[in-house]
Every structure is written in structure tokens, then in C-alpha cells.
Automatic annotation (TrEMBL):
The gene is purK. It catalyses: 5-amino-1-(5-phospho-beta-D-ribosyl)imidazole + hydrogencarbonate + ATP = 5-carboxyamino-1-(5-phospho-D-ribosyl)imidazole + ADP + phosphate + 2 H(+). Transmembrane segments: none annotated. InterPro entries: ATP-grasp, ATP-grasp_carboxylate-amine, ATP_grasp_subdomain_1, PreATP-grasp_dom_sf, PurK, PurK_C, PurT/PurK_preATP-grasp, Rudment_hybrid_motif. Homodimer. This is N5-carboxyaminoimidazole ribonucleotide synthase. One of its GO terms (biological process) is 'de novo' IMP biosynthetic process. It comes from Beggiatoa leptomitoformis.
Length: 383
């Protein structure tokens, strides 16, 4: 039987990556009595303002990863682009790392990720590996199509939608996975928390709207405006995806919903996800607390939704770069049900994720109406 008595601090958590996801995880961990050390390239990263200790170094520096491991009881990460070889070696030596490095290694490569999901019977778009997308390839391909860099993509980067041969200049000059273009009716997502004992907590299905200029998530609405049948099927597919990975941690499963209500998995994030930020205000247990519970081998919390909610990503305005200036904050905070999150990044630039707002209300429609109001008020500019 596991001990129910804990010393203080409860455990030492090491977080690889000190951006906003690391910061929000660290905030929860500190509230719960854990000691947090973060590894990041920048001494002034968002997590530096919250963590107990900071190690400055590259996320691909094996020595820095080992330094973090040496002062931590357990490791987790807020970003996929890290040195898996060192993590695999540490894991083999007995270091607790969640999600496991083998899971991260699969997810880092979008082609391998799709192969694993397809083998497990998870519905995915048609895809193929293409080392070089050339004009000759496009001439024989079915257009439109989606080209994805096999590795390294994030926040809309590493993705190109090729609608016609005239888009040849959009082609990414990297080893790729090419997918059929899905004319979806909605992009939806489900956060799945899976513990070390394989207990699962599944969050409600959310609806995502993306900024067409950047392919970055703009708005998240919860619960998604879909039928109960679609919602239950989406949750089952999300859980099936994480079981296929045998993942332990918190995962964001992004999916397409087609006009005929077919659900296809787009991709998986092995960490807290933008589509789960709403859980801070609108769920019994946030995605960040859930991750802390999982990596420290504590019982899962409830994933129950407390209120309809909408989230809006606050991006840096075009044409501005430098020290951030928040415009319209007083007006935005006058809107009932609004919570404001600023990530603590010391410089802004066009479309950089600088913060987010959530609005809880009696209905998703009401929350979304208020989001549209806020979008006319709240801006991140620069001095």
C-alpha cells in the first residue's frame, strides 16, 4: 500500500522548458507544495518568475538535462522539441520521466505518430511519407493537400496547405508527411489525462477556431457545439489514441469533424495544450494540476466542467516588436466572467502568444459574444 504521509516539499519536479505551459504547471505545483526546477534557454523565461530554481541551457544539451535530472525526483516537459536520446538514457537508468521518452520520440515525428495511430485502428486522414515535395510530385498528386514537416513544427509552423500548382512557393524544403486535405466542419479537441496506474480522466470536447493568417488557435469554445453522439465518439477516439501510445501524462488530441460527422485524428500533443487552458477557471481540476498529480503518482482529479466557457489567445499585434504594452485592459476586465492571463514574456512580436483570456458564462454563445467584444479592446503592442 502506498504511503499517505508526505514530507515538505512533497517532491522535486523538473520541468523541461520554461514557457507559458511550464509556468502554469509550476504555479499549480507551487500551490500544492512541490519544489520546482525549470530548464530553459532564457534566464528571464516565463517560468523563471515562479519556479524555485532555474537552470539556463539548451533543451538539446544532454549535460543540462542531466543536471536537471540530478536535482529532481521526476521530470516532465512543456515542449516536444527536446533531446530524446538523453531522456531515453536517463529513463533506462531509472529516472522517472512522464510522458515516457519513447512516447515523445513517436510524437516528435508526425509520420511515425500517424503510423502508430493507424495501426491501432484510430481513424486518421490518408497520408504518406514524402522526402521531397517537388513540382513533379504535385502534378500527379490530388490537390488540395497538406504538407507537414515530419519534425520541428509547432503553432502553425511546419505546415503548408497546397491548393494548386501555383502554391509551389509554399512547399516546405524538408522531409515531410503529406496528408489529404480534409474539408472539415469543425476542428475539435479533447484533453486526456492518463495516470501511471492507467486510470483515465477525459475532459469535454472543445471546439477550436484558428487564425487563418497564422494557423494558430484563436478561440476555444467549451463544450463544443456538437451532438452528444459526436462528443462521446470523439472522447472514445481520443482515449483510444492515448492507449495506443500507452501514454502517461496529459495529452491534447486534435481532431477534424467532417460534414458527415466522421472524426479523424489530426495530431497529438504530449503535454498540456492550448485547447485546455480553459480548465483553469472552468474545470474542477485544471490540465496543469492533473499533470502534477500524474507525474507525482497521486490520484487523478475530476475533469468535470463547471461552466460553459470560451478562451481567446492574446497574440502580439502586427507591426509591433519590443517591450509589451497592454492596451484596453481596464475595459476588458470590466466584462463579467473574464479572467486575464499574461505569460510574462519580456518582448512581443507579431503573432507571438503573449497571454490568453477566458470568459465563463451561462452559455457558450454568451461567452463567445463577450470574446468578440474583448477582441476589439484588448491588444498587445510595444513601446
Amino acid at each position: 500500500m502506498k504511503s499517505d504521509t508526505f514530507p515538505y516539499p512533497l517532491q522535486r519536479i523538473g520541468i523541461i522548458g520554461g514557457g507559458q505551459l511550464g509556468k502554469m504547471t509550476a504555479q499549480v505545483a507551487k500551490r500544492m507544495g512541490f519544489y520546482v526546477t525549470v530548464l530553459d534557454r532564457s534566464a528571464n523565461c516565463p517560468s523563471a518568475h515562479v519556479a524555485d530554481a532555474l537552470i539556463v541551457g539548451d533543451l538539446y544539451d544532454g549535460e543540462k538535462l542531466r543536471e536537471l535530472a540530478s536535482v529532481s525526483d521526476v521530470l516532465t516537459y512543456e515542449i516536444e522539441h527536446i533531446d530524446t536520446e538523453t531522456l531515453k538514457a536517463l529513463y533506462a537508468e531509472g529516472k522517472r520521466i512522464y510522458p515516457a521518452p519513447r512516447v515523445l520520440e513517436v510524437i516528435q515525428d508526425k509520420f511515425k505518430q500517424k503510423q502508430l495511430l493507424e495501426k491501432a485502428g484510430v481513424p486518421v486522414p490518408r497520408y504518406q511519407q514524402v522526402d521531397h515535395v517537388t513540382l513533379e510530385y504535385l502534378q500527379q498528386a490530388t490537390l488540395p493537400l497538406v504538407q507537414k514537416a515530419r519534425t520541428g513544427g509547432y503553432d502553425g509552423k511546419g505546415v503548408a496547405i497546397i491548393k494548386s500548382l501555383a502554391d509551389i512557393d509554399k512547399v516546405l524544403p524538408v522531409p515531410s508527411m503529406v496528408e489529404e486535405y480534409i474539408p472539415f466542419s469543425k476542428e475539435i479537441a479533447v484533453m486526456v489525462a492518463r495516470s501511471r496506474t492507467r486510470e483515465v480522466a477525459c475532459y469535454p470536447v472543445v471546439e477550436m477556431v484558428f487564425d487563418e493568417r497564422t494557423n494558430i488557435c484563436d478561440i476555444v469554445a467549451v463544450p463544443a457545439r456538437v451532438s452528444n453522439t459526436v462528443a462521446e465518439r470523439a472522447k472514445q477516439i481520443a482515449m483510444q489514441s492515448i492507449e495506443a501510445l500507452d501514454g502517461v501524462g496529459v495529452f491534447g488530441v486534435e481532431m477534424f469533424l467532417t460534414e458527415n460527422e466522421e472524426i479523424l485524428v489530426n495530431e497529438i500533443a504530449p503535454r498540456p495544450h492550448n485547447s485546455g487552458h480553459y480548465t483553469i477557471e472552468a474545470s474542477v481540476t485544471s490540465q496543469f494540476e492533473q499533470l502534477v498529480r500524474i507525474v507525482c503518482d497521486l490520484p487523478l482529479g475530476s475533469s468535470r466542467l463547471l461552466s460553459p466557457v470560451a478562451m481567446w489567445n492574446l497574440l502580439g499585434e502586427e507591426g509591433y516588436q519590443g517591450q509589451p504594452v497592454i492596451e484596453g485592459l481596464r475595459s476588458a476586465l470590466s466584462i463579467k466572467g473574464l479572467s486575464f492571463h499574461l505569460y510574462g514574456k519580456d518582448t512581443t512580436q507579431a503573432f507571438r502568444k503573449m497571454g490568453h483570456i477566458t470568459i465563463v458564462d451561462e452559455s457558450v454563445t454568451a461567452a463567445l459574444e463577450k470574446v468578440e467584444q474583448v477582441k476589439t479592446m484588448l491588444k498587445i503592442k510595444a513601446e
